[in-house]
Amino acid sequence: MSGQVPQREKPPVPGGEFAFTWSDFRKIAALVHAQSGIVLNEGKVNLVYSRLAKRLRIVGLRSFRDYCALVGSEDGIDERQAMIAAMTTNVTRFFREPHHFTYLETDVLPDLVARARTGGRIRIWSAACSSGEEPYSIALTLLNLMPDAAEHDVLILASDLDPNMLARAEEGVYTAAQVESIPLELRRKWLESRKLGDGIGYAVSDPVRSLLRYRELNLLDPWPMRGRFDVIFCRNVMIYFDEETQNGIWKRFAQVLEPGGMLCIGHSERIGAAMPFELVAQTSYRLREKAAP
Question: Residue 168: inside a domain, yes or no?
Fold first, then answer.
């Protein structure tokens, strides 16, 4: 982990509800980094406190010292998972960073769709799918070109390390405000209105849902997928990692992409020149043909 937090006598969050020391912060930061690759430097101390204070209330602990003991124990696996989830920011929406979907529809999918119609396959991975808006946006983009995609060998893998987000994604139900960014024609064709609380929500229709498979997956762990992907979306994830971890994941993406495959990343992220990718559009990269073993 980059950057050492200095030893200090004063608590990092004076007057907080729960006792919280710099030693507690270092233990949490080290465990989060080991489990997920997420880097928590000194500037994140207030974020750590505010997000994990909610966890302390839920599990009924009175100090971060006790919380550190819990998440560091053999019996703390569920809470470690909850802690990692609390440290990630699930900011997402349908067709977020729309240039990716425009490029996907105009420059990437036409050839893939033609191949699928002659017996080939399409494989797309949403790596860090959060509550599902990204993989469903991919599916809607594909269905706009290939309405009968479910009748062909087409699969979109939606993975995330947070099982709660995966459950929401698999449910596929959203508020009216959440679906506003979906083009009206696609919304009318592929979403179904549903009563949601005191208002109206929308459920993703079965033909869309049938294209997706969900998997809980930490990008630092071994990847069980055997086949290669034509497209990978991994956006606004690498900002949590140090450079060494980023480079390791870029290389692993190269190993599971088809030669010439597309990788979409977040607007704040960059892939180094030493990686086997070339920039082809705004934050959209192509795996060089010679990169595959």
Answer: yes
